[in-house]
Amino acid sequence: MADHRYSAFISYSHSADGAFAPALQSGMQQLGRSWRQRRAMEVFRDETGLAVDPNLWGAITTALDSSEWFVLLASPQAAASHWVGQEIEHCVATKGADRILIVLTEGTLSWDDAAEDFSADSDAVHPALRGLLTTAPTIFDLSWARQETDLTLDNVRFRTDIARIVAMIREEPLQQVAEHDARARRRTKAIVRSTLGVLAAATAVAVIAAVAAGVNWRQASVEQSAAEHEAQVALAREFAAESRSAEDPRAALALAVEAYSLAPAAEHRGALLAAISGTGSELVEVPELLPEGRQSADITSSSSTTDGGGRVTLATATGSIAVDLATGGEWMLPGRAHYLAPDGEHAVGADGTVFALGDEGRADPVATIPALGTEPSFTAAGDLLAYRHEGSAGARLIVVDIAGEKVRSVAVPLGSDCAGCSGDASAIAIAPDGSMVAVRIAPAWAETPIRARLSSYAIGGDRLTELASADVAGTGMVRFTDDSSALWARDDGAVLVLAPGTLEPVGEAMSISRAGPLEYAHDALALAPADGCRLPGVVLPPTMATVAELPADLEYTEGGCYDAAQGGSPRWLLGGSWVRTSAGTWPTEAERLLDIACDALGGTVSREDLTEFAAIGHSPTGCSQNTEES
């Protein structure tokens, strides 16, 4: 609006988010910024904590009144802050509660539909917020972003979350914001490349001074940093491309390491993974995921990573076991198939037996639920799960609460015509916050092209209430975004971005050329199976660009491409920190990938070697600065 000096006012605890708040402000101001602009939007942040001085409250309220949106960084520390409470109250009094945008940085924040308020155990909600809202607010969960390398637009996941926040503030579709940002980056890169080419002999300050005559010294310094950064990113992309095409295993590893060290982004982490699992694999020693004597091919499910460990279930000749990767502890489980909850505390058998994994290898059956017809979809906390059940009356969608004192389940019929439907687990998804569930049904009698029915339901105590239904094409996945605000559904060659309550589009569809279901580690990272002549690959939403192809034990057809019927569907393990295909299992965390590559390279790469590998004169530093991107 024309009468607002700032697009947003950031309210936060300086003790909790002293590093995060500046990164958020910078990201919002820089996303989509053209080379002519100083900032893409104006964002107010109290840089010194002076709001604790009551004499300056007037300055704070002036900034609040001049801001269109109020961005609250929610954390337990912010929830205890008197000054954050005053800022919330002033915002509500002058703008209304609908102008509050919540970013979770630490702690828990969940909505209780029955109470129409935040749940009692939400430790990041400020008392001033309770009772203000009647419907669940949109919460942007950035509690994952705690490291310095997380808090940069070079990190694809951080950039995507910033784009979501900016899209809400500008009231524009996410895809429109992302496309504008991509265009701005391309223009800046082209201008920088042209400028550096024409004035290669000049210093960076002189270059910017010549291009932007009349700009003061400080502005020139900002432009200098931007030019140097863009040139560094461009060089990193060139090294990554050279790594992917290299036939020399040492070259593939060295170039991937240097690409990541120059720009620690997910696309360059993909180059590292591709080099270690592919061309460079003959030089590396990949650590074993499982204790000696256990095979990764036997893994049937896994928990999320916890402190570098986690738990997995393995199929054995006599049944199934759960293994704790940090301690080596094991639990024997009767039956062939068991699925771990994200926290690793419960295992659910295909026959419906729920086990609590206790101390000293005790696996205590604590409940029996209807038998599982598909792999279940769990909430982030692991308290609720959803799956398909085949009974005498036909197929049913089951949602079970295994966290309460008494296990409760609710169900809705899916129709007798679904008796022969695919058992694909990706066709059922429960929202991470447990508020909704979605199911995709393609009847067994469907003709080509297949039309599937997509339905969403609200989860409320003892019932499921249908919210909306829509037709989608083909087969494929359905999933909720990490913050539960949107539903993604495959529709032939696109992934639709839908509002869960209406199934109406709320963003531009994401195009993908690969066939088969995608498996997500989180909103910004997915796996695609083998497809024709393409190996299984790691892809990055929303562009769906393939950043790593992974080896797979597949047979070839007469045409020289892969026979997809032989397998090759990859799988994330331990919340995305490991990845597996039928050919092997590899870590995906950047720090571990760098360690593996640098060990294989003997700890260093000479300038002469790098020049030979890429025909670019550059002093390598990759193996001496292992920074990590999330």
UniProtKB/TrEMBL annotation:
Pfam family, one: TIR_2
Domain TIR: start-end pairs: 4-129
Transit peptide found in the keyword field: no
TM spans (from-to): 195-217
Keywords: Membrane, Receptor, Transmembrane, Transmembrane helix
Keyword DNA damage (UniProt): no
Entries under InterPro entries matching the protein: Quino_amine_DH_bsu, TIR_dom, Toll_tir_struct_dom_sf
Superkingdom classification of source: Bacteria
PROSITE patterns linked to this entry: TIR
Stated name of the protein: Toll/interleukin-1 receptor domain-containing protein
Organism in which the protein naturally occurs: Microbacterium bandirmense
Lineage: Bacteria, Bacillati, Actinomycetota, Actinomycetes, Micrococcales
